[in-house]
Each structure stands twice: as C-alpha cells, then as structure tokens.
Design brief:
- The structure is a single chain.
- This protein folds into 2 domains: 110 residues, no CATH class; 134 residues, Cupredoxins -  blue copper proteins (Immunoglobulin-like).
- Strands 3-2-1-5-8 form a 5-stranded mixed beta sheet, with helices on one face.
- The chain has 6 helices and 10 strands; from the N terminus they run ααααββββββββββαα.
- The protein is 38% helix and 20% strand.
- A hairpin with a 4-residue loop joins strand 6 and strand 7.
- It has 295 residues and is α+β, with helices and mostly antiparallel strands.
- It starts with a helix and ends with a helix.
C-alpha cells in the first residue's frame, strides 16, 4: 500500500514539475536557445530549428522519465523503520531489460533518419542558382568574389578599439540579394578555416586545395554575424565578417559601386597561397629535381 502511495506522489510531482517547466518557457527557450535573429533567416533555418528543438524535447522527456524512475525507486524501495537485513534481490527482468535495449536503438535510428533528411535537404545542389559568390578565407580576413558580376571585395583583418570591439569600417561585408537562390563556393588560401554565419545555423569547413559549397536562399533582410569557426592561428578571434542581405535594388547599387573602382574589377584567386605543397602541385617534385641536379 505504501509503495503505491509513494508511486502516485512521485508521478504527480513529476507531472506538476514538467507542466510548470513547459508553461514557463520563453520564446527563446521554445527555440532551444538558438541565436536571436535566426528565425526565417534562410530557407533552411526552419528545418534546422525543428530538428534541434524536437530532439531536445524528446531527450527532455526521456530524461524526466529516467529521473522520475530513479526518484520513485529511491522512495518506494527505501529502508523502512524497523527493517533489517538485505532487501529482496531481483535480477533478470527480461521485459525491462528488453525495453532498455530496444528504446535507445529506436531513438538513435529516429535521430539519424531525421538528421540525414535535414542534411540532405541542406546539401542538395541548386541546379541554376540566381546568384553565385565565392568566399576565399585567408589569415585572418576574407575575400568575396561576385562571380556573375565579375567583381570582388578584398577584406583586411578586423581591427579592434580600446574596449576590444570590432571597428566597423574594417569589417568585411558580404552582400546577398534577398529571396534569390544562392551558391557559395568556399576556398582557403592557406590553412583550414570554417565559414559560419551564426544566424544561418550552419557552417562548413574551408580546406586548402578543395572547393566546398553551400546552397541557400536568404529570406530575411538584415545584417548577420559571420566568423571563422576553425582555430586558424594567432588572430583567429579577429577573423570576422558580416553578411548583409538587401533588396535587389540595393544589391545592384553595391555591385555598381564595386565596378566603378578599377581595383575591384575581376576575380581574386588563391594564387598567393603560402601553402604550396598541396595535392596536385609539383613544388616538391621540382625541389627534388633541383637537388638532384645540384648533386
């Protein structure tokens, strides 16, 4: 009788705590504390948000059940006053052991399936993108090629003021037109970097000698935070940039401004890469040949 009463008390307490917790959730908590401004930033952010928050809700439910069972077992099977000796020993409960094996496997398969689907949607190439840009990472700044317009922007390392805040005029800015399918080619001029637009909830490595791609449609105008997400050297923390999503008219005006400056015409390459010993390069072979000739 006591064990049933204890189980009821534990169940009621757990339900009350869960109800109060869920009822008190703020919009930020309901979105899993994802970065502010990421709502509807691209065509992919709703799917990423859904995967993230659904995973946390499921894991929270599993955690509450596990904690509830632990609390119930601690109360229901505690030593009572006057009891002595060892409690009754139980083992080989096949139904429970089967449940504890099957349930995690089902959860893992479910997480994998939904994650794979979301990743497949994000990584699916756009056949004929309306806009193409190329991002070249370099220690410790960014270059942006607007490939269809045949112009570029060359960035410098972001400078900071006395308080450590970035100086706005030194910040590299990548312009994108809103609601246009976009292909972003990612290149590195030296070491491994990572292109991360915080509010887009997605990042991708930039590997020397390899071109990676991102495909997205910016669906909200505004200024978004960008940074390198791969430790790349002494001034990694200053390798910042911004993505400015604007209407087509403003985008065209910005491109026209770049074209008016001869220094911005044409596209930049990775020719100034200090890392010359990359796959496909003949530098090592040339050096070996020179040494043999000297001998």
């Amino acid at each position: 009788m006591r064990s049933r009463r204890s189980m009821k008390i534990a169940a009621v307490s757990l339900t009350a705590i869960a109800g109060l917790t869920l009822a008190g959730c703020t919009p930020e908590q309901q979105r899993g504390f994802l970065p502010e401004g990421s709502e509807g930033a691209t065509n992919h952010t709703p799917d990423i948000t859904g995967l993230w928050t659904t995973s946390w809700i499921i894991l929270l439910i599993v955690g509450l059940i596990a904690w509830g069972l632990v609390a119930w077992a601690a109360v229901a099977y505690r030593r009572r006053r006057g009891e002595t000796g060892a409690p009754v020993q139980l083992r080989y409960n096949m139904p429970i052991e089967t449940l504890f094996t099957v349930l995690p496997v089902v959860l893992i398969i479910g997480f994998f399936a939904f994650t794979a689907k979301t990743m497949s949607d994000i990584e699916r190439p756009i056949a004929n993108p309306e806009n193409k840009v190329e991002v070249i990472a370099k220690r410790w700044a960014w270059d942006f090629n607007y490939t269809k317009e045949n112009v570029h922007f060359s960035g410098v390392q972001v400078q900071t003021d006395s308080s450590g805040s970035p100086v706005a005029k030194t910040m590299p800015v990548l312009y994108l037109p809103v609601n246009k399918t976009t292909e972003i080619a990612l290149e590195s001029r030296d070491v491994i970097h990572s292109f991360w637009v915080v509010e887009y909830l997605y990042k991708k490595d930039m590997i020397p000698g390899k071109t990676n791609y991102m495909y997205l449609t910016p669906t909200k105008t505004g200024t978004f935070t960008g940074k390198c997400a791969e430790l790349c050297g002494e001034y990694h923390s200053n390798m910042l940039f911004e993505v400015r999503v604007v209407e087509q008219v403003e985008y065209d005006a910005y491109i026209a401004g770049l074209k008016s400056n001869p220094d911005n015409q044409g596209l930049l390459t990775t020719d100034y890469n200090p890392n010359q010993n990359l796959p496909g390069n003949s530098v090592s072979e040339d050096k070996a040949h020179d040494k043999s000739s000297e001998g």
